[in-house]
Amino acid sequence: MSEKRERQQLYRSEGIKLLYSNALPGIIITFIAATMLTFTFIDNGQRDGKLLWWGTLCTVLVWRLIDTLLWQRCSDKRKHERGFYLRFTVGCLLTAVLWSSYFCLFERHFTVEEFTATVVILSAMVGGAANVLSGNVILASLYTLIVLLPWSIILIESPLDYKRSLGFLGLFFTATMIFSAIRSATYIKQAIALKYKNQRLVDRMEDTIRERTQKIYEISYKDALTGLSNRVAFQTEAEELIYQYKRGEIPGFSLFFIDLDGFKSINDALGHDVGDRVLLAFSNRLAAFQDNGTLLCRWGGDEFIYCTPQVDHGTLRNLAAQMVKSFSQPFYLREQEITLSATIGIAICPEHSTNLTRLIQIADIAMYALKGKQPERVLFYNHQLEENLRSKVLLQEALNNALARHELRLVFQPIVDAETFAIRSFEALLRWKRGTQIIEPSVFIPIAERSGQIVNIGYWVLEEACKTLAHVPNDDTSIAVNVSIVQFQDQQFVAKISRLLETYHINPGRLHIEVTESLFHSGQSDLTEKIIWLQRKGIKISIDDFGTGYSSLSVIQNLNIDFVKIDRSFIQKIEDKGLAIVEAVMNMSHSLNFRIIAEGVESEEQARLLQRCGIHYMQGFLFSQPVEMVDVFRLAGKTIPLPQAS
Question: PROSITE patterns from the xrefs (predicted)?
Fold first, then answer.
């Protein structure tokens, strides 16, 4: 709608409002004036005519009064209807005609008193109408002309001088009242226009405030990327569910704590822009599971919370399985196919807790406990999970001070020549004794890697190994040290290795670095460059636990790996399918020029079978348990007294 049309409608609606707002006082004054005029001079003649006139005017006034009351009682929307304007106009003009007719019909019978009273009353009615009817200039002008013009003309034609003078005065008064009505109407119109402008300004301000309020709400309660509820909004909404449960309105609800697996590698490899699109696409898939009573939240990063009124374990497990299936479908982003998975931890109110913060915490604990464990993707919280996590946290804190308290030490397991059983090298193995408690490496090494403490611990192991090498009398004996991928990622790794070799005057060929196959699966080119540097330096490189991870012959070939250690799981099954694996790796070693070490050799039968395969080196309890540092000096270069294979 155009602004001009809006203003016209506003003028009409405001004009109708002004007319009807002043109508009731005008009707009452008209009735009083007409009654006084009629019955004061009723005996001057034309009694029946005056009574008829008065009755007609009262009928019009009653009709106008009813119309006014109807207008006051109707809705604001209907008050602006054109019908009200037409009825008011007709009623007002009929009243003007009746006023004018009184003078025209009865003037020749007027006494001086009645003549004077009539002229005064008519003039007063016109003067009042100029203001009362100022909401409509045409109506105010017509009212003035109808009431004053007829009797002014009659008086001008009178033979009496004073009446002619009054007639001309009436014409002048008519023009003056019309001019006054026009000025009043103009003023009213300007006031309405000003009100219109103010209203538009207020409306714009309200729209602006509404928009900004909405933006503030979205900033405060919506996640900017996904549009899902943020932490603040979710906690507010979920607290209401707690209250509903406590009031007995709902049986409870469940929280799914969802974490994307492998999302960090997407950000690192493809950039945060792609990562953001993945999060948005993931949130859309999550939203597909939204139903009545469910709440969705991006908790932070690649963590999401799904809240459902369901509490049945079977229903929840099926729902979570459907989610996992949906989330594992590829994402297609700008012709890129990206496949992720998600881990879900579930906590239930009231089964696990009725405190929202606690429910979120334990759902997170369940998710964290399952993280990285294939193929399971869904886990309900149980108390043991928290106990395990608490133990890991306590161990992590204790591990911070393990070096300072001299709780860590190295032991060394011999690696023997497969033909002669002479000890050629040792593998340095880390041990932790906390008071009287022996902590297994399989327990504390993953904790150290996750916390980053493995870097400092790893350098301590390397330095202790180099100290030991420096005092081993046999120059042909080497020591192998396991190095974590976390340690490889340290920018100072190469420099520190070089400094250790120089400090302890170690022949680089006597230091063997053992890495797991997962190192090459990380896809980080700088790690490969560090391995190449170590090889150029003369340090030997071994792949540990070969066959259990990312096996890649191209890596062995391109990096010219020195040793491959066959995992103990294959050696334990060597009399079954393990022998075929050993023979296959042995055949590859001839082509790719690497040496093979068999781990976990525990029986003479295993040793004989390995000898027949032509294996190069063996390591296991058959030859020796891990020994202390002092025994390394004694055993270096010695031969294990075992019978040769026949």
Answer: EAL, GGDEF
